[in-house]
Amino acid sequence: MLPQGAHTLTLGLGDALIVVDVQNDFLPGGSLAVPHGDEVIPALNRYLDAFARRGLPIFATRDWHPPNHCSFQAYGGPWPPHCVAGSEGAALAFGLELPASMTLITLKGTQPDKDAYSAFDGTDLDVRLRVQRVGRVFVGGLATDYCVLCTVEDGLKAGYAVILLQDAIRAVNVKPDDGARAEAEMIRRGAIPIRWEMLAE
Ligand code: VGL
Ligand code: ZN
């Protein structure tokens, strides 16, 4: 049940779903595990089904680094090795129900000397969205305080309306309130937070 007065949101033409970096290395047991990262999988599956049933486009991004990537500690970066291109850790999470026929995959962070948290950074995502006449993107996945944050910020800068799937994101929380701060920042910049209950049938 929705609280009285709450708004609902109807999916339609021009909407797209962006699933950010739901990859094994970001799940519990992975090399850069996001606490409770696996909880985004069932949450995203509901949105995936809603978009698929309406024939709306779905984009899945993958962090996809060379073994000598600059974000890895051995090369001066902040992170343990993760999402090495082609590795099991870089594979999309088992159980994530991406409809193969309508999902487009975007790889990012593929250059050794350049990190890319945003799905728009160094990719053709903007062009692919424009080709499909997308005006509004629904963003969920991992991690709230890095790739989701940067993807939402770049989406807003590129002129998209951005809906933040608040029940389908989880944070690394290097500092304990990083995730909460990132959410507040995305909303401050214009992202609209929703939860599953706010989507109209
Ligand atoms: C990410 C840290 C390093 C992310 C990627 O997907 O949020 N975080 N690489
Ligand atoms: Zn990375």
Automatic annotation (TrEMBL):
Belongs to the isochorismatase family. Residues 16-197 form the Isochorismatase-like domain. The keyword Hydrolase applies. GO terms for molecular function: metal ion binding; nicotinamidase activity. It comes from the Bacteria. PANTHER family: LD05707P, PYRAZINAMIDASE/NICOTINAMIDASE. GO terms for biological process: pyridine nucleotide biosynthetic process. This is nicotinamidase. Pathway: Cofactor biosynthesis; nicotinate biosynthesis; nicotinate from nicotinamide: step 1/1. Its EC number is 3.5.1.19. Keywords: Hydrolase, Metal-binding, Pyridine nucleotide biosynthesis. The keyword Transferase does not apply.
